[in-house]
Amino acid sequence: MHLLQKAIMITCLATSVLSLPNSHNTGKRSSGEKKIEHVVLLSFDGLHQSDVDAYVKANPSSAIATLLKTSVEFDNAQTSKPSDSFPGLIAQVTGGSPKTTGVFYDVSYDRTFFDPGSNCTGTPGAVTAYDETIDFNSTALVTSINPANLPKTLKNGQCVEVTPHEFLKVNTIFEVAKKNGFFTAWTDKHPAYDIVNGPSGQGVDDLYTPEINGINTVEPDIQVYDTLHLNAILNWLKGVSSTGKSIPVPGILGGNFQVISVSEKDSAGGYLDTVGQQPSDELKKALDFCLNYT
């Protein structure tokens, strides 16, 4: 049983998806309408609309094909510009573009910041790196953010570090859920994904971020890494935290998966044609892992 099938099965055991107002919501519920209480957000790096279309056509009984039969599919959506896991995820959890979120890329530049360790002296202007380089140990699977590696800014006359969540200029869906009494959980590839906490720093109750550079980022090791994320999500849906403690089933939960992206970039992976219609054997395995049954 592969990633998406497992997530779909366990989600069906939970009580559906978080209720949020929309343009068609009159504020009343029909007697037969199920209340939506839980949202699972799965983010697959490198997965294109063309990949989904081709996969469903070739695998009509796959988990993704089954899911799409009872889903609303937005097939004319666009990713962030630039597109990568960091700005892409920020777009998903905020609804904002880099212009509004203030986050162009995981490594960019801010004219008002100062370099790490500078004590805010000298001419302002510093690289804002929110990737594995801010870890205490970027080659360890279990690590955390080293404040000494963070850019600095002057705040009320004091020189302070700027954490990832403080770099974000807008709130996140996790913060909205928290304000409405929901438990929240997310898993991603670097401790720098603290950014999903939002400006409050409190958006995600259980943030699980094993460092992806702590393993071999090639197949099949990357599947093992993604399985860490999957297991965390499955445990949350059972009411178990990333540390094994009892928790409420989160109102919003989910995580990022890297195997497709890694397989696209690997020398033995990618596509066999120039239009992205013929995946290599390595990429086929990655797509199967994410989208299909065993």
Automatic annotation (TrEMBL):
The UniProt entry, under InterPro entries, shows: Alkaline_phosphatase_core_sf (IPR017850), Phosphodiest/P_Trfase (IPR002591)
User: Which superkingdom is the protein from?
Assistant: Eukaryota
- The signal peptide, as residue positions, is 1-19
Q: Gene3D superfamilies from the entry? A: Alkaline Phosphatase, subunit A (3.40.720.10)
Recorded hits in SUPFAM superfamilies, A to Z, give: Alkaline phosphatase-like
One family name in Pfam for this protein: Phosphodiest
Give the transmembrane ranges: none
Keywords assigned by UniProt, alphabetized: Signal
Q: What is this protein called?
A: 3642_t:CDS:1
Q: What is the lineage of its organism?
A: Eukaryota, Fungi, Fungi incertae sedis, Mucoromycota, Glomeromycotina
